[in-house]
Amino acid sequence: MRYTTFNQNNVNPLGEPMFFGNPVNVARYDQQRHSIFEKLIEKQLSFFWRPEEVDVSRDRVDFQAMSESEKHIFISNLKYQTLLDSVQGRSPNIAFLPIVSLPELETWIETWSFSETIHSRSYTHILRNLFTDPGPVFDDIVVNEQIRERASDISKYYDDLIFYVQLWQIYGEGTFEINGETHEVSRRILKRKLFLCVNSVNALEAIRFYVSFACTFAFAERELMEGNSKIIRLIARDENLHVTSTQHIINLWQHGDDDPEMKEVAEECREEAFEIFTSAVEQEKKWAGYLFENGSMIGLNKEILCQYVEYIANLRMQAIGFEPHYNQVTNPLPWMNKYLVSDNVQVAPQESEISSYLVGQIDSEVSAGDFGDFDL
Amino acid sequence: MASTHKVQVNSLPVVEVTTGESKSLLQALEEAGLELNYHCRTGFCGACRCTLTSGQVEYLNEPLAYVRQGEILPCVCIAKSDLSIDH
Ligand code: FES
Ligand SMILES: [Fe+2]
Ligand SMILES: [Fe+2]
């Protein structure tokens, strides 16, 4: 079905499924089939921040004093996060916008992906401060074997969905031979590819950042790289919101609250979705091994990091209706939580709203202690 | 208006919590010495998700995380009666 940027048919968006219904026409939010996406947009906008607001200039001294193994850990993590956000800054738009059918979800996807571009820009901000020429760090991302291995797993479900949607847009349903390869395109096949893709993105948002987050916050616990840690805190807050959205999409399908055919697809693909999740967990544990291959850092080692990945994975699996799969039921890094708190502990609406806007210039002359529990 | 309720988490000993207007159940349980999972503490990440086996809660802030039937997010609700929850 050919994509149109303004569908002139009069469709009732309240009767549309999230995906593979009619293309969206009027960007209206006065009525919503799934109002959660509008609420996520509001939340994401209230989180708005700019990397330049965080002063990272003091990190340079800390970085220079690090051991070689710690530098390896720090830089490798930044490379990996750069890869993740490079993918996320474009792929939700390219993969999901051509097939989305609800205005509130369409706008959520754009808002979500836009926030990922802020993350990408923040890595340049951090690296420019650490290196006169950050070029080699970025250049290594496409040649580094460890990163490449992850990149192909992360992008393959997106790429597959995008390619099949392109075929469908041009030729409709049927069997097509392209460059000597045969591709069968049907609505059902497209929906299966969509389901697997969203599960892969969910795993990305749910666990792929956490090894890196743990290392960053372990440095911060030693009062090192605190500018960087402030930025990563803001990123972590955003990522926690992104994973909420992919969990909602998966759960709406699974519980039959959206497209009935997607409920069947979710049942059919349950095993595969489980494997997507657990293989992402294994990859992250391998990443922990790679980080520590030249030596450890104070406060963290490979074993405890793997336990933390399993702990987070259990929480995330339960959120999409899987039984917790790993033995690690308690949090092996309790200090992580204080960096993942999104706001001050106030839950009164006015207070929690206001502090989300309190993103001001952070002066490096103010020590971390002066902030106390105050969140950025 | 503060009120006091008895809460049982898993099969741990029952604790008493006092919930005020702006003190979440999560906070109240922590003050009673329990440790629960949490990240955001503002109702969007789902890390604190529990199953409510008996009792009633009231939300201070609308949760953004997906909450299935029978589940609660203690970081954004308060106890309205004695509770029994699985975490
Ligand atoms: S701690 Fe995030 S939802 Fe309760
Ligand atoms: Fe991101
Ligand atoms: Fe994200």
UniProtKB/TrEMBL annotation, chain A:
Q: Name one Pfam family in it.
A: Ribonuc_red_sm
Matching entries from PROSITE patterns are given as:
RIBORED_SMALL (PS00368)
**Enzyme Commission numbers on file:** 1.17.4.1
Tell me which UniProt keywords the record has, alphabetically. Deoxyribonucleotide synthesis, Iron, Metal-binding, Oxidoreductase
Q: Which residues cross the membrane?
A: none
One annotated GO molecular function is: ribonucleoside-diphosphate reductase activity, thioredoxin disulfide as acceptor
Task: State the Gene Ontology BP annotations.
Answer: deoxyribonucleotide biosynthetic process
The record, for InterPro entries, names: Ferritin-like_SF, RNR-like, RNR_small, RNR_small_AS, RNR_small_fam
Name its co-factor(s).
Fe cation
Matching PANTHER family, A to Z? RIBONUCLEOSIDE-DIPHOSPHATE REDUCTASE SMALL CHAIN, RIBONUCLEOSIDE-DIPHOSPHATE REDUCTASE SUBUNIT M2
Q: Which NCBIfam families match?
A: PRK09101.1
Q: Member of which family? A: Belongs to the ribonucleoside diphosphate reductase small chain family.
Record-given protein name: ribonucleoside-diphosphate reductase
The scientific name of the source species is Aliidiomarina taiwanensis
Automatic annotation (TrEMBL), chain B:
Protein's UniProt keywords contain Transit peptide: no
Please indicate which superkingdom the organism of origin belongs to. Bacteria
- Please state every residue range assigned to the domain named 2Fe-2S ferredoxin-type: 5-87
Q: Which GO terms describe its molecular function?
A: 2 iron, 2 sulfur cluster binding
Q: Name the UniProt key words of this record, in alphabetical order.
A: Ubiquinone
- Whether Membrane counts among this entry's keywords is no
Which named protein is this? Answer: (Fe-S)-binding protein
Q: Top-down, what is the taxonomic lineage of the species of origin? A: Bacteria, Pseudomonadati, Pseudomonadota, Gammaproteobacteria, Alteromonadales
